[in-house]
Design brief:
10-stranded mixed sheet, about 375 residues, 14 helices, about 40% helix
Length: about 375
Amino acid sequence: MRLAALLAAVATAGVLAFPVAGPAQQPAPKRPAAVHPVPVGNEAARQQAMREELNQNTVTVISGNPNGAYLYLANDMSAVLDDGNALRVLPVIGKGGYQNMMDVLHLRGVDLGITQSNIMSYLKKTGEFGSNIDQRVAYITKLHSEEMHVLVGPGIERVQELSGKTVNFSDVGSGTQFSARLIFDLLGIKAKEINVGQGDGYQMVKNGEIAATVLIAGKPTGAYAKFKLEPGMKLLPVPYTEALEQDYFPAKLTSEDYPNLIPKGQSIDTVAVGAVLAVYNWPRDTDRYRRVAAFTDAFFTKFAEFQKPARHPKWKEVNLNTTLKGWKRFPAAEEWLLRSERQAGGIDPALARAQAAKAAPYNPAEQQRLFQQFMEWAKNQPGK
């Protein structure tokens, strides 16, 4: 860098400063007169103003790798919400739920992260990130659900029968490994864990080397959509018990999701964990809070854009009003939802949600459509 600066200064002065080799009696070249930097004045100020403008309205979202939905959702956020220098959203590839939570807490420059809903109760229990974790990290919204898939070999009819048997919990550090351990523990299942990819896990179940392979991911997953059942193999139901109510949701896998694995017209009960858009809970009087609040306003205001066909299909499951047990909503998000409720004419959104759930059980996309349709109708009633 010093050499570059010197060359630039010399070029400005129009003087060649390289010494020339020659006979010993040749006089040494004269040194150039001292060159003073050219004042940059307005140019430096302009560059600084541009730098501040680019940074003051930019937020980063740490997501996942290209094999899962997280990165695609973050990319959709950028596509829908970017508004020149008024708001920019930068997707960042991450490693998954647990690491993303750590990055939101500690990695400089990370504003938001996609993680799993069950991680909050886990961290409260273990105290790994401190006793006040629920004060330091908040959520903007629950995203889609990630369903539990349990593919087993012959002779196993109930998930409890996996106790004492070898089960693949997918790759080390994956969201599947993190959540499968917690779910099995809550169900009282003590399996012998191994960690391989789902393709290898399928082959090992097929060959009788292990009893089952587990995957927790948004349906339909690419891997399971390609699998074919060999004699005795099946997708196993996972019961939704009281022990799972804190962090998990009832779900179904259908023949439409996996025509190669589930007979036509049939479905299998399972459980799901929610993906969550999490944020560090910045104090209100900070620039980071202001930036995330601007993101939140744009995200909620333009949310209908996420549910159009060009975006990832999992957006159709998102219910902005869903609350998460054990989590606190980011204040800017809570305030936006309250304003929206007032504009709807005082209709209780929780009641409307409950009615939509009854009208379309196990169909989050239809529930969301019915809710939005009703709230729009209520907002336009005379006198509202």
